[in-house]
Each structure stands twice: as structure tokens, then as C-alpha cells.
């Protein structure tokens, strides 16, 4: 199992997407899922409509480059039309271990045209896409079901040969241990393709190590 710290490795909710949480994730060697928006002509890190003091995307990349591991960045796109600026900044920084996801389909086509790696989405409401063949992986979510299992997981596993990013249930304020136990039981069938996006990356790492 590989790990994406959801909005950084935060200890209290006010740390989400903060420099503290981002640095902590990199210090522990975790990948990060974080949110990118535009604000007054800048790209910033923010899940909600941003304030003017939100962290610049350039500053975020600078923090990332200050750590040696170059772990995966899962960039949740929260606004349309950022492809050009985002690609320029990533290319200039030499950042290659990243993926973009969660944008609208019309906006996603721009990322595909720019040859930026992207995830397609799957859930009980989102099925196969004509974009599957070009995707770097699947972002596998579950809204009304407790978690993605069975046929949903199997379909996502065959949609592309890339990553399977599992949304841990606590991101939707649901219990997560049943999902973790199920995924631990089947992860051997998916080699190193599983990426768990979680609010508890340290706990998850210990949990999945039991079956390793």
C-alpha cells in the first residue's frame, strides 16, 4: 500500500493544507493529496474559496523540492482553466511525480492535451469513461456505499494499468477500519497499484504493515 496524506498530514483540522501539515507529510515520506485553486491571478493551495493569504502553489512546490523523496502529489483541481499555469510551474520546478484529478470533463480535456497525467473517477455513480485508456489511474470513491469493494474495485482495476487511488471512508465521515481490512486482504492482487488517500496516514501505514 502507498499513502496520500489528505490535505497534508494534519493533527488538528485547522492544520489542513497548511505548511505544517504539508511538511509533516513529506518528513514522514508520504505522498500528498491537496487542492489547487486560482485567486486573484495566482494559483494557491485551498480546498474552499481561498483567502488572499492562501499558500502560493509556487511556495508549495518549493517546500516539496526541499525534501529528497519526491513523493507523489495528487493535485485536486478546484477551478477551471489552470492547465497552462500549472504545467508551466511544474515543468519549471522539474516536478514529475504528480497527477491531477477531479476537474470537470471539459477541463480535463485540456490537461490531456497538455500531456499532464490525470486520474479518471469511479464510484457507484461514475462508470467507465472513454478517457480510461489515457489515464494514469483511477480515483476510486464511494458516496452511499460504505466503501469501494467487489465489482467496483475489480472494474477500476481493469480500467487502466495505472494507480488505483482509494478514498478512505473517514474522508466522508464514516468508519474506516472495515474498508482498510478489506483492502488489506486484496491488495496483493493489485501489486503496488493501491494508493490510500487518508486522514490517518501513520495509522494506515501501521495497519497495512500487519498484512505485509
Automatic annotation (TrEMBL):
**Per its UniProt record, what InterPro entries does this chain match?**
PLC-like_Pdiesterase_TIM-brl
Q: Name one GO biological process term.
A: lipid metabolic process
Which organism is this protein's natural source?
Answer: Sphingobium amiense
Q: What is the lineage of its organism?
A: Bacteria, Pseudomonadati, Pseudomonadota, Alphaproteobacteria, Sphingomonadales
From the Swiss-Prot or TrEMBL record, what is one GO molecular function term?
A: phosphoric diester hydrolase activity
* Protein name (Swiss-Prot/TrEMBL): Phosphodiesterase
